[in-house]
């Protein structure tokens, strides 16, 4: 049955009421309304964000009047009826949006208007994560027992020609997401009513432990055949002291508790930190770290977490980096310290062994494996002046550690923490570090150089940082302060330091849209800038900066300006450059606009510029999951398609299937070349 035409816009109806001659021509009213009504050009997934069922009805019921021209058969609203793959893609993303909103009515609307479409596991998982038990129960009612499509299967391709039974993707991490969010009722319902061999029981148990729900953990222990030893670190991180103590009493494996102190410290849970440090350990229950304890004086302790190089030393840094100064001070007072310089190397060896162990249990993102100078850098970046002062006071006493400089492995160079303080706009820290640099005595510098030349006959000994560097900053300080828009820091450095800046200062201030900094540098410094300033300002969409540079500087720009503005979706900048500059653009403009999903930019470039695009444009749009852009390019361009991707990039994707149907040879060529 044909869908009813959408009701004309109220403003159009009122307009034509004042024109009696059109009273017998309702199709004119409908045509004018359709022309003016931009809402019907919204993709369904975008319309879902407004939470309006009438809007969804209007889009669904809208039709396209015959129009002459190259776009006559191309319209976003028409794609729902003409492009099967696009329709399936819109259904999935719209379901995710409706579930995120906990909008049961919208979910039912989508299910009714998209019959037979697969409800993928990502949709089920989202419903579980937000605790939408009513939606999960509804999906279970609509589960027709169909098989989830497997796009590698010829059988599934044949089945697509007939109306399939709706399949629901139960399992994987649905219960784990529900447990992590504290939805105990959803976890139990999934296991009791939507069982699946694909469900990750280990992740579910880990999430339940991390949520602190002891009752749910007990329920899962009774339900699951094989209980994994996971989650204690998450419980500590989330502050669930009852769970931490209960799991400790249950004795879940000898290594189950590794990393608890670090996670509790970095999240600021002082009660768990104190309990872990102050409780008595069984001295006979030694782990790998304890087994090779050095018998030398000062390298043993009764408690493994507070031993030299033990977990407490890492936890101090984790607490500091996350702003928990009180916990860091407490741990520092309880942790053993090396009693002589040679023990610094042994402490490092032990730290690295512990870090390797912790990487397995809690992951590298949760562990500080930086040298002490790296910790100083992080504190500076985070603007924690009190922590910077405390850390410098305690650790600068060790002349084997230079807290002023860090080594960048990627760039193979050293950089100053004072540079970092300037970049992040922490003027108080800049002033403090500047003062501390000037207080370093020649004797201390000589001692550091002496220590750097000592061979402790230990293959793992490595001096923390190159010592023969002048404490202070470099021109990077002002360059980066300008880039971040910290004019007060730029001015202080200009008045109190002699390092100055480079052309990067104005270039990157322009890039970030900091016109006030650009103007100050123009008036007070002599370094100037390059054409990159306008190029990057255009890419960033800072039209006011582009105009200022155009009027006050003579470096100009290159084709990178319009290319970059197009890639970033800044259509107004593209239009201004088109009208006021002569550099133009390249095919990269449309290629990169397509990659980033800027439909209006792609369309404008096609209509107003002659550079066109390359065969990469459609492939770029596909990589970015921008279905509408891909379909427009297919309709109005003739460059074809070149795909630079692996099959894993789009596996199980409707976009992948569309490409296989329309550019099969290009897809195979791209996959073979990858």
From TrEMBL:
Renumbered residue ranges of the record's region Disordered: 283-302
One Pfam family matching this protein: Ank_4
Biased composition (Acidic residues): 283-297
Highest taxon, organism lineage: Eukaryota
InterPro entries assigned: Ankyrin_rpt, Ankyrin_rpt-contain_sf, SecEffector_AnkRepeat
The protein, known as: Uncharacterized protein
């Amino acid at each position: 049955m044909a869908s009813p035409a959408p009701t004309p816009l109220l403003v159009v109806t009122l307009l034509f009421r004042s024109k009696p001659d059109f009273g017998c021509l309702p199709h004119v009213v409908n045509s004018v309304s359709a022309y003016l009504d931009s809402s019907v050009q919204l993709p369904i997934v975008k319309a879902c964000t407004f939470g309006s069922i009438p809007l969804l009805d209007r889009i669904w019921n809208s039709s396209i009047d015959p129009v002459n021209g190259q776009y006559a058969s191309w319209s976003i609203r028409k794609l729902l009826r003409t492009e099967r793959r696009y329709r399936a893609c819109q259904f999935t993303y719209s379901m995710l949006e409706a579930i995120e909103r906990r909008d049961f009515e919208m979910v039912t609307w989508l299910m009714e208007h998209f019959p037979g479409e697969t409800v993928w596991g990502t949709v089920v998982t989202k419903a579980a994560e937000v605790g939408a038990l009513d939606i999960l129960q509804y999906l279970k009612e609509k589960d027709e027992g169909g098989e989830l499509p497997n796009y590698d299967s010829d059988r599934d391709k044949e089945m697509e020609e007939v109306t399939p039974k709706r399949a629901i993707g139960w399992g994987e991490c649905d219960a784990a997401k529900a447990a992590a969010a504290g939805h105990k009722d959803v976890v139990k319902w999934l296991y009791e009513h939507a069982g699946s061999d694909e469900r990750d029981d280990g992740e579910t148990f880990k999430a339940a432990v991390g949520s602190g729900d002891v009752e749910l953990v007990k329920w899962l222990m009774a339900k699951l055949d094989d209980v994994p030893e996971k989650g204690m670190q998450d419980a500590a991180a989330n502050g669930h002291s009852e769970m931490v103590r209960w799991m400790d009493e249950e004795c879940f494996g000898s290594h189950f508790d590794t990393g608890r102190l670090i996670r509790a410290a970095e999240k600021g849970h002082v009660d768990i930190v104190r309990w872990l440090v102050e409780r008595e350990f069984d001295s006979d229950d030694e782990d790998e770290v304890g087994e090779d304890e050095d018998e030398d004086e000062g390298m043993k302790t009764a408690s493994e977490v507070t031993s030299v190089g033990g977990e407490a030393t890492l936890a101090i840094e984790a607490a500091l980096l996350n702003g928990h100064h009180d916990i860091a001070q407490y741990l520092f007072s309880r942790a053993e310290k090396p009693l002589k310089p040679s023990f610094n190397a042994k402490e490092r060896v032990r730290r690295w062994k512990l870090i390797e162990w912790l990487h397995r249990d809690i992951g590298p993102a949760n562990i500080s494996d930086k040298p002490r100078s790296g910790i100083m850098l992080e504190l500076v970046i985070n603007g924690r002046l009190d922590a910077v002062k405390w850390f410098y006071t305690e650790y600068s006493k060790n002349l084997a550690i230079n807290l002023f400089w860090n080594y960048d492995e990627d760039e193979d160079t050293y950089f100053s923490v004072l540079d970092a303080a300037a970049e992040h706009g922490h003027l108080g820290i800049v002033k403090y570090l500047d003062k501390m640099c000037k207080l370093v005595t020649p004797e201390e510098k000589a001692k550091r150089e002496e220590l750097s030349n000592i061979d402790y006959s230990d293959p793992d000994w490595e001096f923390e940082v190159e010592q023969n560097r002048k404490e202070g900053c470099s021109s990077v300080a002002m360059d980066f302060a300008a880039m971040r828009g910290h004019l007060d820091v730029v001015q202080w450095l200009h008045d109190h330091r002699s390092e100055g800046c480079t052309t990067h200062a104005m270039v990157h201030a322009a890039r970030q849209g900091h016109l006030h900094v650009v103007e100050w540098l123009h008036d007070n410094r002599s370094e100037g800038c390059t054409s990159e300033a306008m190029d990057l300002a255009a890419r960033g969409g800072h039209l006011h900066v582009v105009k200022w540079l155009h009027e006050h500087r003579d470096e100009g720009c290159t084709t990178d300006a319009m290319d970059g503005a197009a890639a970033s979706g800044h259509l107004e900048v593209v239009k201004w450059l088109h009208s006021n500059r002569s550099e133009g653009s390249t095919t990269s403009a449309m290629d990169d606009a397509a990659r980033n999903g800027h439909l209006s930019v792609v369309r404008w470039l096609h209509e107003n510029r002659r550079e066109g695009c390359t065969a990469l444009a459609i492939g770029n749009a596909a990589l970015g999951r921008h279905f509408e852009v891909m379909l427009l390019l297919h309709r109005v361009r003739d460059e074809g398609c070149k795909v630079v991707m692996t099959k894993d990039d789009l596996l199980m994707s409707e976009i992948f299937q569309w490409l296989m149907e329309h550019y099969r040879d290009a897809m195979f060529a791209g996959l073979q070349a990858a």
